[in-house]
Amino acid sequence: MASSENSTTPDSSYVILNELKGLTLDEVYEKASALYNEGRISDDDMQAFGNAVVTLNKVFSKQEQHHAFVRQATLEDVDAVMDMVSFWAQHGQNLPRKRNEIIRGIQTFAVSVLDDKVVGCACLYVYDSGLAEIRSLGVSPVIQRQGQGRAIVDFLLKRAERMAIKRVFVLTRSPQFFSRVGFTRTLREKLPEKILKDCENCPKRDCCDEIAYIHDIPSRMV
Known about the structure:
This protein is of the alpha+beta class. 41% of the residues lie in helices and 20% in strands. The protein is built from eight helices and seven strands; from the N terminus they run αααβααβββαβαβαβ. It has helices spanning 8-20, 25-37, 43-61, 78-90, 99-104, 148-162, 175-180, 192-197, and strands at 68-72, 109-114, 117-126, 132-139, 167-172, 184-186, 211-216. It has a seven-stranded mixed β-sheet, sandwiched between helices. α2 (25-37) packs antiparallel against α3 (43-61). It starts with 7 loop residues before the first helix and ends in a 6-residue tail after the last strand. The model is unreliable at 1-14 (pLDDT under 50).
């Protein structure tokens, strides 16, 4: 039994552990990130925590051969994410992103992993109004049409729901895909946040061939 003078530390630890019960690994990671932002977790502890989550994902993935899974991106994934984003930007499917932009926003990215290799990515960008956008979605052309794109979108929609985001949109040249995953078509003019941030500086703003789709997220039951 712990001595009385040390009772505060284990009690606070147990409170944290109780809060983690029943959460997914992604939710646990977000909880740790919140504690880190509050100054309750050190840089070294946060790094160790991130490594532990990655290790757990790797262990679970070994239970099924060639099993792909989606997880929160980490700084170790920056090169793979950069390669994926650059590949699809060169093919005109999304906007190019600078490396430092990806590093600063790595917490917004999710990655699909197959046999320890990142094979897909996307990020959830939140605007000041609370509207969110799924952007930089891309899957390795080697494994297209195997469900990784849908899994990444589902992962980010669940994240948006936990953040109490009400609407998520995309601008896409793959309307059939987003129709299949529950998005409905809308007008770009109804997305002033996107137009002000990216569209005004886009060289194709006057001849845009992207289609806007939006997804309404049901309110969470309390």
